Amino acid sequence: MSIIFKPTTLVGAIAIAMGLSTTAVAQGLSVQPSAQSSNTLDTIVVTATRSAEKIENIPARISIIEPQIVEQSPIAELPHLLMSDAAINMVQNGGFGQIASIFTRGTNSAHTLILRDGVRLNSATTGAASLAFLDTTDIKQIEVLKGPASVLYGTDAIGGVVQLISQTPEKNAAFVTGEIGEHKTYKSVIGADLVENGVYAQIRGQRLETAGTPVTNRSNSENASYDQKGYSAKLGVDQERFAASLDYSENQGYSDYDNYGTPLSQDFKNEIINLKSRVNITPNIVVNARLSQFKEELQQNNSPDFVHSKTQEAEIYSKWQFTPAQNLLAGVSHKNIEGDVLSISEWSTVKYNEDVATTGYFVQHQYQDHGLNTQVGIRVEDNKKFGTKTVGQAAARYQIFPLTSIYTNIGTAFRAPTTNDLYAISWGGNPNLKPEESFSYEIGLDQKLAHNLSLGFSAYRNQVTDLITYSGMHLINLNKATFTGGELGLKWQQDELFLNLSYAYVQAKNDETKDDLTRRPRQSATLTTGWQDEQFGISASVSAKSKSKDFADYPSTTPTTTPGYVTTDVNAYWNVNPNVKLFTNIQNIGDVNYKTAYNGSNIYYINGGRLASVGVTLKY
User: Fold this and answer.
1) Where, by residue number, is the motif TonB box (predicted)?
2) In terms of Cα–Cα distance, which of 284, 287, 309 is closest to 299?
3) For the chain, how many helices (H) and strands (E)?
């Protein structure tokens, strides 16, 4: 194991960082309530309705990865943060910078829409987001909406939506953070905020480097090093009658990876431009508009291969509060996705530069009164390749007793073929593919109990048809799959003490073969417990997965099995004074080398092992 200093020195450094307090404290990388505000009724989300809404009113299951959690460890990757939700199975082919796939409620990786302040981050070529290359330096909180959301967001939102909500300056401030850990890993972050009479500016810069860890359990597997650097800037104005902002972020770097035993490397770069505005025409009518662009470039080293993806979107929507209890949301969005790909091998050559344009029209009615909250919406999507698609959704939550509410929703969603699906002919691309479609329904219960306990339960069924899959050497619409599952959550908080337990079960079945789909463990559980206040915090977070079916070695048809695992994180912080914060994080404290996915020929991808680190933030 390559580390930046000897293990005894590392343990001593962590002990010092924690021992500076008589009651060391921390915050785990998981979904948990804020100690500063134990009343979850005040939690505000925007993903479910496209506007600020109390989470208690949402007729769906949505979880929050809160600001304190995101800020606790600058080194922590987005895939690691998302592991804290039991409904999500993260499959990463190694440690830092390795391909990461997200399976929300058992659906495919391309069935979860990833957003940043409304900007679509899913690749135009593969349909999935490059989660390992997305930096979270300027992210305030992460919202995870489970279940279909195509009415408001269009394609890809079959299994759910993960939205990164960026920070907006609230006061003049400046800070610098440094964190250093095992495997020669370090990250530095610097930032400044300016606010004056509703006008604000923000800038962030960051750099991360690591020597990495082995990607597979092959005896001669090399460490996969990774580095990234980037910055973000935001300029805006926020007044009662109007608001506007311009965001820019860029992240680029280098990543080693394993290609079936051959070590390779690639350079990456992603760029986000987001121009947003809001105008309150009257006290009851608000108009929002957005122009955005997301670019992603992957360039292979020592070969001419590259993958370039670009998504441009223009959107305008308005919200009309036509009675105190009712509002109407209506809008139109136009999107153009472009894929530019070159891949040369001894078996095939893929080369194309194509784009697909689509326009969506959506409307949603919302009612809130007398303990009843409803949402009914419809979207018509006009795509120049596959034609017109209509989806709809209806949902309701009812407060049947002061401490008890129930909800239900039913809806359809879709995923349009990507440019790879349509134009990568040598990979089996088919320009006649139809979009994948889903029909789902869900019921849920939320109950507040005695002794500051709260319980949440949900059950769902989601059937996807016209799945895009290979038949021989070509992609076709063939398979049907059904995802049936349930989730159970228990929360408790007493002053500074807290506990959050969640359990998820999903059965992902191919309806034609009746087999389980690969890389979907049926059972998942997370537990976070600890103490936190404004000065100190300490917590432990446990994540557990059951075994899952994986791919078979050709020509055998017998599937392999990826074993289950349990991993534990420990986190602590101490706000020494208003200007100095000390913290330490230990990901996978037991150094459990668990298998994440099958690589073939009796070789598995493995996780990155333990990562212990210490850090300091100086702020003004």
Assistant:
1) 43-49
2) 309
3) 5, 35
